[in-house]
Amino acid sequence: MEGKGIPGGIPRRTLLRASAIGAAASALPLVNVHGQTSGGRLALGLWDHWVPAGNDAMRKIVTEWGQKNRVEIQLDFITSVGNKNLLTIAAESQARQGHDMLSFPTWEVHAQAEKLEPLDDIMGRLSQKYGALNPIVEYLGKVQGKWRAVPAISGSQNKPALGRIDLLKQHAGIDIQEMFPANANPGSKAADWNWDTFLRAAEACQKAGVPFGLPAGQFTDATDWIGSLFRSFGAELVNAKGDITAKSDGVRRVLEYSQKLFAFLPADVFSWDDASNNRALISGKSALIFNPPSAWAVAKRDAPQVSEHCWTFPAPAGAQGRFTPYLPYFWGVWSFSRNKGAAKALVEFLSEREQAAAMVAASNGYDIPPFTSMTDFDTWEKEGPPTGVVYNYPVKPHHKAEQFIACYPAPPEIAVQMYNQGIQAKMIARVVQNKEPIDRTIAWAERELEGFKRG
Amino acid sequence: MSQGTLSAPVGAEATGRPMLRRLARRNSTVAFLLTLPLILLVLGLVVYPFFYAVYLSMLNRRMTRFIGWDNFTFLLSRETFWNVVFQSVLFAVSAVLLKAFIGFVLAHVLHALPSKGQRKWRGMLLVPWVIPPAISTLAWWWLFDPSYSAFNWALLGIGVDPVPWLGATGWARFSVILVNVWYGSPFFMIMYLAALKSVPDQLYEAAAIDGATGWQKLRHVTFPMMRNVISITVLFSLIVTFANFDIVRILTNGGPQDTTHVFATYAFQVGIQSGDIPLGASVSLFMFPLLAIFAIFTLRGVNKRSKEMA
């Protein structure tokens, strides 16, 4: 007799044999449990790229990695149009299930930090390999000393000046190609590219009927360039400790400057969205905007007579320095992911130089890697026409500029509210549109900021 | 029916099956079973989210601590929030009044048309209501576009200066209300038209015999007969308009300077975009007491009138 085993079924000896095999299997490394053909399943929610080829390149890279590592990939591209990526993040965070790895926009790493897997090991290896990172990604991606996400290449963008070579030369007497050529030797006038020169150029272009297209609503393009303007005037609303510092000479100066500048901008910029400035440039109605190369790329397709006169160059400098608006994305792994090992391995793989170069090339130079050592890809030199149009899109040492996120260095939980509620743009709107006295505007901002400080 | 036939089921009451059969035969049971899918939907998509929102609104920003009413008291101390309250009331009340007026006029015009052409006009006037609002609002946005507004192009053609439709507070408020009125008026029109058609002709004939003028017929016959429909339509529209999101979101994103934000768009900005879901939930819950009070009074009036008519 075989013995009793489980009543009505499997004999005891068979059961013991199965248990032994199970125990042995569980003691072996993961790779053996799944055999040589499976590293598990990985669900990815990556940013839906503005540049269509960006998605194709990403799909290719991820699929090849999946095949090589025997990982079954489920890849979703989630658009940021209508904040659908934010809604996905909020829903998955509440449900504690969904994708294993997601693209997190600028402020979301801090918001979701407690539910994100620490990625210090990956960042340690990447930093060792590729050197220095810009401080903004550390500010946004590191929470209480731990990296909660890795700064992504895909989707991360700078927003330098994107101007018309012909119009700026003709109306403002500024040769932007001579000032910032497609090489590391800036022209003699580069040092004079400051907000005063900018103001004179804005006036000249406005008089010529091609005003600068600078939005001032509550969309990111407005918040980003205005944030850099404030920073270069030393106008800090909240300091790193979280103290409100809006009542300062820097803030007064930048608001006074704005009163002068906005007199030379289209009257409706307070209602512009992120597409309005692009349209202004592409339609030939504007001589300068602050934007990634997407506006140039669309012009290349739809209005080649405009695109061939476009040139990217750094933002103007102020008394406190030159600050290039910067909006990074991050790749993060949920702590409730069922395949953290594979997700982390993929994040590290995507962050390597080879993959970064491929993504930058596929996106016509749009994507900005977080490592300074990765700002030398030849894509930025070769893109055109005109050739070298995006050479100065990544921040290069000779620009003497820093990448900057609006509202830095305020603690991120305060800064995210300042940023998304466009407090700096609203301050400008108050003094320009409502003609409110500067001191009253600052007092209003202080009351708003007090509310943002609530825990 | 014989006594014997009647007595048979009574004798079988103790066994469960005939009892079930009797239960199934009851109108109320059938009604309950038929409405069960809807009840489940309402429970899942309205009641549960409502109580979950109440729960969320009592948590701190990180959702790690219960803080009671702090989010609500905080909001009541904010200047921006009071602006949102004002704008929501302005948006909802003015849009609903305009929709009710336009719907009333259109319904009467349609009712007066000969029945042959009425269907064609009714179909055309319903078009704004059947287009998904997100799509029609995008078309309106193009008409209002800051730089390439079709309206401004037309105005320039007749020598009038361009209007900052979305860039100045007054015009931006006007624009969002206009789009809401355009979208919602057909709903009022169709409801009022249905009510008009149910008014018995004899009442008008009697009024005519008494020598009533057109205005007197409208005031003393039509209006009293339509009051319940008007009340319910206004209540329904007020709820939907108060909770409107897409029109403001697409046209102005709450700008300029937050002067077109309504509860829903402000809740989205605070909750989802600024990472403070509990505060966003609190903003959205502020609509509830306002609408609840209005609903109680409206429905009480409707009940009272229904009883009087019965």
TrEMBL record, chain B:
Lineage: Bacteria, Pseudomonadati, Pseudomonadota, Alphaproteobacteria, Acetobacterales
Signal peptide bounds: none
GO biological process, one term: transmembrane transport
Protein name, per record: ABC transporter permease
Pfam assignment, any one: BPD_transp_1
InterPro entries: MetI-like, MetI-like_sf
Source species of the chain: Teichococcus deserti
PANTHER family noted in UniProt: BLR7065 PROTEIN, SPERMIDINE_PUTRESCINE TRANSPORT SYSTEM PERMEASE PROTEIN
Annotated compartments: Cell membrane
